[in-house]
Design brief:
5-stranded parallel β-sheet, alpha/beta, Isoleucyl-tRNA Synthetase, Domain 1, Gyrase A, domain 2, 14 strands, 4-stranded antiparallel β-sheet, 582 residues, 22 helices, 3 domains, flat, single chain, Rossmann fold
Length: 582
């Protein structure tokens, strides 16, 4: 429809002998101002130096002569200083409802990324450390973007990068060996064992900072982890690695993510180190700005500022011969393209604070493998803050991603005590609602900024929340179940004269998906879903939908089906499940 209106406007401008005018056609914020609006009169008036409102009237006169060519347009009006508003016809909205009902849960699919192969790396928790809030954020954002790109026709693979070696592992193992009765718990659930490993890491970190003796032992353990020269350390490492990876997997299942590739830091370090050593002293391409890597005080560095004044020097191999994070990222990049040699795009979702060193890595890649650098994209996110300041879990511990999920789930379970569900169903629904509460809080705003998480608001079944969206979908399903019992079938042709607000929003869903895919921004979908949920609940509150005496009841059922399809599909694209009952 947007393209049809643009074509109509271009025809009117041609009739008025006005050329080369850049204008936009968009949805007005207020539905009272029509379904589409254009600034063409303001843009044209500026070019030919005339009054915008007068030009708008002339354009509308021409548009009305050609209006019959587009039967979906009911009325064209001038508003304000010269905006031209288009009001769509009753038949247009009825036709759009019919289209959504026929399309079902495939609504919003498009082929803009057909044949594109995309790998997206996200979540990236480290074994032997807790799954923290930042991992929840990157998981929510990464999984949603992956689903949106798939809905747009791309073949998407999901990758996870695990820090399986490093000082953090040595700190945890030191405390597991030093105080096994307190931290090395083997006869508990995977989640409980992982929690104690996380506590061992925290205690080991404190000891490393404050106890010189402990620091020396941890440094020694770190060397032995790399060399695999100590049987007790190896056994503890193997157990701790499996426990924490299994615990992460349980969380991925709850969050709705399945990874295709797991890359390990220990392996990437070797690959990256070989790449760096092979490029020491090597000319940095045709720009003539010196070498790629060079020696400096016994270390190997990349002086990125030579190639981009906004960047800075970073160490890639230390004076002790150890590869840094940058080198491991270099190895990871090359391994991704080796595992999937026909990749069209490699996306990394990471926190804002990691972007500086990622830019340096990308510049190094551009000099070593320019064909790979051109296919790399970084998406960064902010931090999660809490309305109550620094927040601890309900059990008094420093909050982690897992404890937040558990706290939200437990709180929802407490509110479900009077519901007619089995214990198993209650726990399943509570887990799904907990995920929606957290994911929606993360995804409802653009990815780059920090978010403020409000525990109580996030689990509310009314207002701006994930559970509100789920309740709206469950309400629609309940209506459809009742209609089926009453044998009232959906009939998109039995429309009343009134156009409901929710109809004026539902047809926009494919546009929203397309924009989210182009900009890698799930918040457009999240905000849209809240808007249609409110409109549907208003429609529900003001109309008797299931009514055999009402000739338009079949249409209202069709509209309810359309809403349920759009809501379920939209929630899926956010990585949120849509329970039929709540």
């Amino acid at each position: 429809m947007q393209e049809k209106i643009k074509k109509l406007i271009k025809g009117a401008l041609k009739d008025l002998k006005i050329t080369d005018v850049e204008f936009i056609v968009e949805h007005p914020e207020d539905l009272k101002n029509g379904d589409y609006s254009t600034n063409v009169a303001m843009a044209g008036a500026k070019k030919i130096k005339t009054n915008p409102k007068e030009l708008a009237e002339k354009i509308v006169a021409k548009l009305q002569l050609a209006q019959s060519a587009i039967s979906e347009i009911k009325e064209i009006t001038v508003a304000g200083a010269g905006f031209i508003n288009f009001h769509l016809s009753r038949k247009f909205f009825a036709h759009s409802i019919e289209g959504i009902v026929n399309t079902g849960e495939n609504i919003g699919q498009n082929g803009t990324l057909k044949d594109q192969k995309i790998m997206i790396e996200f979540t990236d928790p480290n074994p032997f450390k807790p799954f923290h809030i930042g991992h929840l954020m990157t998981n929510a954002i990464g999984e949603s973007i992956a689903r949106i790109l798939e809905h747009s026709g791309a073949e998407v693979t999901r990758a996870n990068y695990q820090g399986d070696v490093g000082l953090h592992v040595a700190k945890a193992i030191y405390m597991l060996l030093e105080n096994p009765k307190e931290y090395l718990v083997r006869n508990e659930s995977t989640s409980r064992q992982a929690i104690f490993i996380g506590k061992a890491y925290a205690a080991g970190s404190e000891a490393y900072e404050n106890d010189p003796g402990a620091k020396a032992k941890i440094d020694e353990i770190n060397k032995k982890i790399y060399s695999k020269s100590d049987e007790q350390i190896n056994e503890t490492y193997d157990w701790g690695f499996k426990v924490t990876m299994d615990a992460f997997q349980d969380l991925y299942e709850m969050l709705g993510t399945e990874f295709d590739f797991y890359f390990l830091e220990s392996q990437m370090a070797l690959v990256g180190k070989d790449i760096v050593l092979a490029n020491v002293g090597k000319a940095a391409g045709p720009d003539g700005k010196g070498t790629i890597f060079e020696e400096s005080d016994g270390a190997i560095v990349f002086k990125a500022e030579k190639h981009d004044p906004k960047l800075h020097t970073r160490v890639f191999i230390t004076s002790q011969g150890l590869p840094t994070y940058e080198t491991k990222e270099l190895g990871l990049t090359e391994q991704k393209f080796e595992k999937a040699p026909d990749l069209d795009l490699s996306i990394i979702v990471t926190a804002n604070e990691q972007m500086d060193y990622m830019r340096v890595v990308t510049k190094a890649v551009s000099l070593i493998s320019p064909e790979h650098a051109s296919k790399m994209k970084h998406i960064s996110h902010g931090m999660m803050r809490f309305t109550a300041g620094k927040m601890s879990s309900r059990k008094g511990n420093v909050i982690t991603g897992e404890s937040l999920l558990n706290d939200v789930r437990d709180s929802i379970l407490e509110k479900m005590t009077d519901r007619e569900f089995s214990i198993v169903d209650q726990e399943k629904i509570a887990a799904d609602v907990a995920v929606s509460a957290i994911k929606y809080s993360i995804l409802k705003q653009s990815t780059g900024g920090d978010i403020i998480y409000d525990f109580e608001s996030s689990i509310s079944s009314e207002g701006d929340s994930g559970p509100y969206l789920q309740y709206s979908h469950a309400r629609a399903k309940s209506i459809l179940e009742k209609a089926a019992k009453e044998n009232i079938l959906p009939d998109p042709h039995a429309f009343p004269e009134e156009i409901f607000e929710v109809e004026k929003l539902l047809y926009k869903f494919p546009e929203i998906v397309l924009r989210s895919a182009k900009e890698y921004e799930p918040h457009y979908i999240a905000n849209y879903l809240i808007e249609i949920a409110r409109a549907f609940n208003s429609f529900y509150g003001n109309n008797l939908i299931v009514d055999k005496k009402d000739e338009s009841s079949g249409y209202k059922i069709a509209l309810t089906y359309a809403f349920s399809f759009v809501m379920k599909t939209g929630l899926h694209l956010l990585g949120i499940k849509a329970p039929d009952k709540m």
